[in-house]
Amino acid sequence: MRPTTLLPLVALIGAGSGIAAQDSVRIAPGNRVRVTAPKISGTRIVGTYDHMDADTLVVQVGGRTRSFPRTAVTRLDVSTGQKGNAGTGALYGALFGAGIGALALGTSAVCADEGIGGTCALVGAGGGGVAGLLIGALLGSASKSDRWQAVPVTAAPVSFLRWDNRRWLLGASIRF
């Protein structure tokens, strides 16, 4: 292949990576972040982003500064806001209420004496489900949780290094 044919291909590869990079979330000091580094800590650590250089991620956690080697960080998420949990609460409340209502009315002595235990269970499930849905939605809307979006932590950092006090070197870290 001739070099003049390769040049447009190289330009297209570079353009595609630039477009993909524009879709990622920007992270700034003070943002709430969640760091996953299994080799250092067994759990995810939630804190405030301080800064990140070529080989270290620095996060403020509970008033303390925590530093993580970038090679140890398997995932970095940034909070994009909070959301309510009314839908999830309504679903769990409806299921729990329907179960309790069906069990309570289906096994009641009045329905058992009349021989209509199945009908009573359906009525109890309907009434309990509606009540559970309303209570679950109310409790779920009071509960908030973070929305997390992944941030690429293994992007190719480029740095200039001083070598022998005479030469400058261009250093890059690439991970596949």
Describe it.
This protein is α+β, with helices and mostly antiparallel strands and 176 residues long. Helices cover 41% and strands 31% of the residues. It is built from four helices and eight strands; from the N terminus they run αβββββαααβββ. The chain has helices at 3-22, 86-106, 109-114, 117-142; strands at 32-36, 45-52, 56-61, 64-69, 75-84, 144-150, 158-163, 167-172. Strands 4-3-2-1-5-6 form a six-stranded antiparallel β-sheet. A two-stranded antiparallel sheet has the order 7-8. β3 (56-61) and β4 (64-69) form a beta hairpin. α2 (86-106) packs antiparallel against α4 (117-142). The radius of gyration is 28 Å and the shape is rod-shaped. Residues 6-22 have low confidence and may be disordered.
Distance from N terminus to C terminus (CA atoms, Å) equals: 27 Å
Radius of gyration: 28 Å
- The overall average pLDDT, rounded, is 76
Percent in strands: 25-35%
Uncertain stretches of 5 or more adjacent residues: 6-22
User: Could you give the count of β-strands?
Assistant: 8
Spatial arrangement of strands, main beta sheet: 4-3-2-1-5-6
Estimated helix fraction = 40-55%
Estimated structural class = alpha+beta
Largest sheet: 6 strands, antiparallel
Q: How would you sum up the global shape?
A: rod-shaped
Reconstruct the topology from this structure:
Elements: H1 3-22, E1 32-36, E2 45-52, E3 56-61, E4 64-69, E5 75-84, H2 86-106, H3 109-114, H4 117-142, E6 144-150, E7 158-163, E8 167-172
Antiparallel strand pairs: 1-2, 1-5, 2-3, 3-4, 5-6, 7-8
Helix pairs in contact: 2-4
